[in-house]
């Protein structure tokens, strides 16, 4: 038994009531531990290391609790989440306005520290300042009150959106489980244009009325975060967020999104004309947004000979994970994944693996939870239950969650290409955690700025297309034969197909997120739908044929806690990704392998993946690439 598996929670014991008990106990221990450090000497050994260990121990307890809230959910976990909002917010406020703890960090900054400790202290001091340490008593009280309001709104919003996703909708006598984004995957398969329109209309109107109406919460959140920014002395919430990101300013974010979206909107006109002509041949003269994916899929089939249905027999879920995602990780990073049928997650449909490096040393435990279920949050995500660092001998416990449509027990699950990319993407986050080699838990793995954290995940998607990797996982579920060579070639060609549509819908949501949180007049806004339309028209991405990937009423990235004023991060990171992909394919490639080799893996691990936030992430990027990235790299990558 590896050391880390002893720390794998027994999820069967973590009932909502038990989760409540251990969380409150952990909060008491955490506060007492930090209180004992208030008078500690301001040294690395006496203060900084114990501080880091206190944070790590607290997160080790509450991590599984919050995992179950999002991955299992339900009424009892929803109630627990609401119960914990206030005490956790007050605890955070107490920490970030603690003068004694803050002063120790100030004194530490005056010492001759090693580079990782110095960077850690610098980031902690910034968190104190953004948490209100410089405010007077009235300011701190006002900040805590608005933080309590934000926490409550975020929980209410998140739970309403989860309930939207938990309900199936009936269209044309068939029931559909809605995806969390606007354009539903099912739109590619529905032949009747009226039914397509009905399904998209249902998707677009989520949160606008009914039991799950979130419009009031959207307005309250945007205004509360704006007030919080003003209390801290900033003009808007986006400015607060960018204090801890790599993007230099709100203008830089808007400029990036505008430059990319303008190129995409231009390309969209050509694509729209092609699809309209195709629809007209079917007698459909009134081409609508709901028809786009349907005809784009058929255009792809004709142009490339490729269709989702033709691909599916070669894309069995667990085979893609084990012989695709894990295979690529082994070739690049020397990582081996071994199935552990003796270990359990929180749902019987899950699989658990132990990861080892090429010497046989354990890197930790990986849990895969791919299927949707009532109560589960939408989308896909990675989380570290235990983040490896020096004291854990660099062993982690990391989860990947997704929301694929489940199958009956014993049946094979076949996935579409977007879901293949999701598996590679989320495991890229996991690798960021498993390959981390830092001194502190707080600087390890994905503890980096949000607009850098998506680099390893988006970059890992490239291996889904690598010829050697495809040959290993894209095999027919009955015959075991490799996907035909012409289909593999078509997949390579498909990478930029439909990118104008995908880019416009992403940019529309990213700009919405940005404009909700950078508008000086947000207090005067009272109509969500009108504000959305005005914002998209102002940004130049309003399109009758391409709705935003998320509307404000079902946009957890923006209106819970995580990617608020930061949804742009995916595109900011993509500029870095494009440069790294080019590095793999040129500098790091050997004998035409596209960079699928251990030397390349060692180089990027040393420069980026192992570093976490032990130094400025931009420094890590430049250590590998040698220069900054630009928006032009995104346009080239997307074929725009």
Please provide a written account of the structure.
The protein is an alpha+beta fold and 640 residues long. Helix content is 55%, strand content 7%. It has helices spanning 16-36, 44-71, 75-96, 99-109, 115-130, 137-166, 193-204, 215-231, 237-242, 250-281, 292-304, 308-311, 317-333, 417-434, 450-460, 467-473, 485-494, 499-516, 528-539, 556-559, 569-585, 598-609, 617-625, 631-637, and strands spanning 168-171, 174-177, 336-339, 351-356, 362-371, 381-386, 396-404. It has a 5-stranded mixed beta sheet with strand order 3-4-5-7-6. The chain has a two-stranded antiparallel ribbon with strand order 1-2. A hairpin with a 5-residue loop joins strand 4 and strand 5 (362-371). Helix 1 (16-36) runs antiparallel to helix 2. The N and C termini lie far apart (51 Å). The mean pLDDT is 95.
Main sheet: strand order: 3-4-5-7-6
Mean pLDDT across the residues is: 95
Profile the largest sheet.
5 strands, mixed
Residue share in helix: 55-70%
Question: Gap between N and C termini, in Å?
Answer: 51 Å
What coarse outline follows from CA principal-axis ratios? Answer: globular
Strand content: 5-15%
Radius of gyration from the alpha-carbon trace, in angstroms: 24 Å
| Number of strand segments | 7
The number of helices is 24
Q: Which structural class fits the helix and strand makeup?
A: alpha+beta
Q: Spans with pLDDT under 50 lasting ≥5 residues?
A: none
């Amino acid at each position: 038994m590896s050391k880390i598996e002893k720390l794998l929670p027994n999820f069967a014991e973590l009932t909502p009531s038990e989760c409540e008990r251990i969380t409150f106990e952990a909060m008491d221990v955490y506060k007492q531990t930090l209180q004992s450090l208030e008078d500690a000497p301001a040294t690395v050994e006496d203060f900084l290391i114990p501080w880091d260990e206190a944070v790590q121990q607290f997160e080790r307890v509450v991590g599984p609790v919050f995992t179950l809230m999002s991955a299992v959910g339900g009424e009892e976990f929803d109630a627990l989440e609401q119960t914990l909002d206030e005490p956790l917010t007050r605890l955070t406020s107490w920490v970030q306005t603690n003068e004694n703890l803050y002063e120790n960090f100030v004194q530490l900054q005056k010492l001759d520290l090693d580079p990782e400790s110095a960077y850690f202290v610098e980031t902690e001091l910034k968190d104190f300042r953004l948490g209100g340490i410089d405010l007077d008593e009235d300011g701190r009280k006002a900040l805590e009150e608005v933080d309590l309001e934000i926490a409550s709104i975020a929980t209410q919003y998140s739970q309403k959106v989860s309930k939207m996703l938990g309900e199936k909708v009936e269209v044309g006598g068939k029931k559909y489980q809605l995806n969390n984004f606007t354009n539903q995957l099912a739109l590619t398969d529905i032949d009747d244009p009226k039914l397509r329109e009905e399904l998209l209309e249902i998707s677009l109107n989520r949160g606008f009325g009914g039991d799950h109406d979130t419009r009031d919460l959207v307005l309250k959140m945007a205004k509360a975060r704006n007030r919080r920014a003003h209390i801290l002395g900033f003009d808007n919430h986006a400015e607060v967020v960018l204090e801890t990101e790599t993007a230099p300013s709100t203008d830089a974010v808007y400029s990036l999104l505008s430059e990319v979206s303008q190129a995409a909107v231009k390309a969209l006109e050509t694509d729209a004309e092609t699809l309209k002509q195709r629809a007209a041949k079917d007698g459909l003269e009134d081409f609508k947004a709901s028809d786009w994916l349907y005809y784009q899929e058929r255009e792809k089939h004709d142009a490339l000979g490729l269709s989702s249905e033709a691909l599916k027999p070669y894309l069995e879920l667990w085979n893609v994970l084990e012989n695709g995602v894990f295979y690529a990780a082994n070739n690049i990073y020397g990582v081996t994944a071994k199935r552990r049928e003796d270990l359990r997650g929180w749902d019987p449909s899950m699989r658990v693996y132990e990861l080892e490096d090429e010497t046989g040393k354990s890197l930790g435990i990986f849990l895969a939870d791919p299927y949707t279920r009532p109560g589960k949050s939408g989308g896909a995500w990675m989380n570290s239950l235990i983040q490896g660092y020096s004291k854990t001998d660099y062993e982690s416990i990391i989860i990947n969650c997704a929301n694929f449509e489940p199958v009956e027990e014993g049946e094979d699950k076949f996935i579409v290409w977007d879901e293949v990319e999701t598996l590679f993407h989320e495991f890229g986050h996991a690798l960021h955690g498993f390959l981390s080699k830092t001194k502190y838990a707080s600087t390890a793995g994905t503890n980096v700025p949000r607009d850098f954290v998506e680099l390893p995940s988006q970059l890992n998607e490239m291996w889904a297309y690598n010829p050697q990797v495809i040959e290993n996982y894209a095999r027919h579920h009955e015959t075991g034969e490799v996907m035909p060579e012409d289909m593999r070639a078509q997949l390579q060609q498909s990478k930029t197909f439909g990118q104008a549509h995908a880019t416009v819908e992403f940019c529309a949501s990213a700009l919405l997120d940005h404009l909700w949180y950078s508008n000086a007049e947000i207090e005067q806004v009272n109509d969500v739908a009108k504000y959305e339309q005005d914002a998209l028209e102002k940004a130049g991405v309003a399109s009758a044929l391409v709705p935003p990937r998320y509307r404000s009423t079902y946009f957890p990235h923006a209106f819970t806690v995580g990617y608020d004023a930061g949804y742009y991060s995916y595109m900011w990171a993509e500029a870095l990704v494009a440069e790294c992909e080019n590095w793999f394919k040129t500098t790091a490639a050997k004998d035409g392998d596209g960079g699928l080799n251990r030397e390349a893996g060692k180089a990027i691990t040393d420069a980026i993946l192992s570093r976490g936030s032990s130094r400025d992430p931009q420094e890590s990027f430049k250590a590998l690439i040698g220069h900054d990235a630009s928006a032009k790299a995104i346009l080239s990558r997307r074929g725009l």
